Amino acid sequence: MPKLLVREKSASLGIFLVLLILLLSVVLSLQTAANPEIGFLPPSFSSGHWMLAPIELSRVDEGLAAMFRKDFVVPDGAGGISSALVMVTAARSYELRLNGQVRSGPSERGLGRNWKVPQEFDLTDGLLPGPNRLEILVWNTVRPPALRVSGLVNSDATWRVWSLSQTQQATPQGMPPPRDWFPGQWSERAADPYRRLLQRSARVAAYAVLAMAIFFYITGARPTGWKLAGTSRFRKWILAVLLIALYFPMAVIRDPGEGWDADGHIDYLRYVASGRGVLMPDEGWERFQPPIYYWIAAALYRAVLPCSAVAAGRWQLASSDFLSLKAVQLLTPLFMIVQIVLVLKIIRYLFPRPEGLAPSTVAFVALLPMQIYFSPFISNEVFSSLAITAALFLLIFIVREKRFRIGPSVALGSAVGLACLSKYSGFLLALTACFAYAVFFVAQVERRTRLIVSFLTASLVFIAFTGPYYLRNVKKYGELLPVNVEFQKGFTIEYFDLPFVLDPSRAGLGAVDKFVSRASSFIDGNYSSMWIDSGHYSKRWTRPFEVAIYYLAIFPTVLIGAGFLRAIASCRDSENGRAYLAIAAIFIFAVFSYLFFILRFGSFEIVKAFYVLSQVGPLAVFFELGQEGVKVGGWQKSAVFSVAVELLYTAITSYYLLVPFLIGKGL
Length: 667
What we know:
The structure is a single chain. The protein is α+β, with helices and mostly antiparallel strands and 667 residues long. The chain folds into 2 domains: 51-170, Galactose-binding domain-like (Jelly Rolls), CATH 2.60.120; 222-486 and 514-632, no CATH class. Helix content is 55%, strand content 9%. It has helices at 2-34, 55-58, 185-191, 193-220, 233-253, 262-273, 292-315, 322-350, 359-366, 369-374, 381-401, 406-420, 426-443, 448-477, 498-502, 528-531, 543-552, 554-570, 577-601, 608-613, 616-632, 634-662, and strands at residues 51-52, 59-60, 63-74, 85-91, 93-98, 101-102, 119-122, 130-140, 146-151, 160-162, 169-170. Strands 2, 3, 5, 6, 8, 10 and 11 form a 7-stranded antiparallel β-sheet that branches. Strands 1-9-4-7 form a 4-stranded antiparallel β-sheet, with no helix packed on it. Helix 8 (322-350) runs antiparallel to helix 9 (359-366), helix 12 (406-420) runs antiparallel to helix 13 (426-443) and helix 12 (406-420) runs parallel beside helix 14.
């Protein structure tokens, strides 16, 4: 009877994860449709389409603004218009004028209004027999002015867009078309029936191969043991040397000023090192970042600064603090190696096999391209991912061992608080901890009184750590997590529509090309330019290697997906079920948060870094579970599954990738 009770309780844990996915899906859909911060242009009218003002025409000091103008004729006499209703939606604020008379109210001029909610106007009493002019002045902040009108007149190509100075005019633009992976991709496909047939055949083959791969995986995925290579002391030293050789040289060679937003991070670091406190988010680029990393880096910076000034004069270095910045730069690969070791510790803790770690798992954790890419930069990305990984390890230990006492609760609140003071993505862990406690409370995994005391203790410690910093954001900006783009003039973001989200061939919109993004990872499947071509661009001799690496990358990605599903299923009957709940939950929160930012900024390439880096631990656990399932089925099924996965990816992407490479056009 007790065993049945435990099985019944643990079975509910996986259900909670499924419910979490469904709930977040609904929330994300509602946010996409209703949130004015998300640049999704909803198809809300039966007539008329969205019109966008050209950027070069609409840029003004306060942001972006343009005048949309439509001239039309009203018949004379009995054939005139008895009722003239128009429905208007404009991003973000607007003023409607008919024949020079303002017809809209002050509420439409407010930037705080929800521009996705249309307004109806009755223009009947303002119409004149003969020529009439409808003008709608639209203001926006970081996106081009956009307008949609239906009713008496509909928004279409017959409108004109004028600058506020009335010196420039243009035809309104529509939604940007999908970007070509290679020249003529879209136009040639539309004109050539054979190309359309190829694409459709590839999709049919992809679905067929996917079904076969899933079948072989499920039939072979039974949780039994499998042998792993041992990890002796000698091999650990070899691993340490390889990690140092992999992560430190680029940090030594590269200039400290290189890297993503390096200038912003260095300015922030220098400000903190000068003893002037912590900057506010609106005081410059990257100033919205939490301060823990900059406090640590500033301490090292100040310690090395006297030697740096002497060395700069003796060796004619680029700046007087060059050595100080170089010392801070070398912190990043050190943090990265510590994170790799910590992730491997998590794997050993969850999978305590006497044979040790599998070489494939060690290689996966150590060679994630996202980690290699960020290792030589002055940035808080790596430190924040380390802080999140350490706090996640503590959460896994507490929930797996049921250590809901005061001491572990204080440690958990402190660790999660420090993670949130390293980067906003630390709040993913805070959400995960709240979710885990709620699930355990409902499922009665532990005594509810102890759970409540533990949760309140961790929460109070968390608030004590993070409250002073984040309260100042709420007081000044009215929001907990402000970002740079809200304070930067001239920062422009594109809109997107439904095909941008649903059409997989448009997933790269916003990137220069599929291989340029060096801040990529296995989860993206495109990272060849980082290892093969340091110039970011394909060369003729690199293309075969890029194709091979691109296709091979999909296999660990599929294993991650399979391992994620196994983690949810293992919440039912695995001794690691409670740990899998926390690991899967933070991954789910990270994915949906990533999707929210994608929708907010209209690009699949932005904010990728800190979401992938913060999920190295869960990705490694899922990879371990995924390859365990494949190996259980025997080498024959493993081989068939591997081939099926590669064929699947080839079928999906061959039309867009392999053909351009073979014909020498590149991407």
